[in-house]
User: Fold HTH cro/C1-type domain-containing protein from Streptomyces afghaniensis 772.
Amino acid sequence: MAPSRSGFPGLLRAWRDRLSPADAGFTVTDGRRAPGLRREELAQLAGLSVDYVLRLEQGRAKNPSSQVVGALARALQLSRTERDQLYRGAGLLPPQDGTVSTHVPAGVQRLAVRLGDVPIGVFTADWTLVWWNTMWSALHGDPAVLPTAERNLARALFGDGAARASMLPVRSERGPDALAASIVADLKDAASRYPADAQLDRLVRELRETSDAFAHQWATPTAAAQHTTDRKTIRHPRIGDILLDCDVLIVPGADLRMVTYTAAAGSSGAGKLDLLRVTGGSQARVNNAPGQYT
Assistant:
């Protein structure tokens, strides 16, 4: 049901009041007065400053970007209809059908929040990271330091920017080239299904022009297996090598990939994840920031 208050500021306040802090991954303590999320909690989830959220709610900040509105919609766990209403309230066209969706359904977010002990990252069809939890940041480094365009796995593998520089050394049991080949296969599939998506087209053109390895993979007619399940050794700068099972869970109807890392109980990997939980879990709780993480 749509909130009774209209206009972007009213929608923002009403949906912030509606969202349960527990569903957003926050611990609810006795004496909490706010019926929903506090303003600073929404700011943290959306990767915005508290002052900017305040100005948006007061109507003093005009013309938020589509990236900001998309991040707020994900943070507020809006339905597609509500998301579109928020875009229109900001004077923007909602995301069009036929383009890669960055919408993360509320049920997916609630599920991921309840699996907080597991590193989880949610990726779009073009392998752009749009949602992650604290354990993901503890394992891979905080995506908050990267601009939006660089939070993309293809750019991390084939680019020469911040995404590539921030990626930790990873060794796959399927071999050194398996991950790269499977990501290119996924991008080919996405490009065939979203031919009108300008951002995806720009990503592919950029990597074909700047990476010989990507250009070669893109021109190779042999189909590689899509990226689904793997066993990886991640070289963490503080803890060293961590052997983990990496599973990619497809979200039907949303065209999202939920990537999880787990280890068998009692294994070395499980012990190192426990250590990460203690030593690396003090960063941002969850995030889906629009452009930068400040």
Strands lie at 120-123, 129-133, 170-172, 229-236, 240-251, 256-262, 286-287. The first helix runs from residue 7 to 18. The first strand starts at residue 120 and ends at 123.
